[in-house]
Amino acid sequence: MSPFSSVLLALRKRHDLRQSELAAMLGCDQSYISALEVGLKGPPAEQFVQSLIDTLQLESNEGQELLRASQASGRKLTIEVDAPQDVYVLMNELRQNLPRLRPATVQILIGVVRLAHEAAHACEPARRSARQLPQEAAMP
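RE: above sequence
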């Protein structure tokens, strides 16, 4: 089950709605709601997610959770044309081995990617405005 599927199912149940009722409110088929909830369909377009947020009158935090879940549920990845060869090798390894990875291994990989992201941002020099520059640098 995808993150979006889990959040959608929980929201529908929290609002005490049947799939057919939610579908009628959104102007779609009950089978589409069912397919979203079980993960047969990938995440819907952002417009549909926004319609869901508006229809259920979700609080800001719930709406953000639904949007994040939708983004996290994408099934396709596009590699930039100018990506290093190592990126292609990594993605091929993941594609071949993903069905056999244990949950603990997946969590380790997520941690490594996040750590690398944080390290890359920590190495970026902070931009300073003229107001933040030391006095001698700010003076003409």
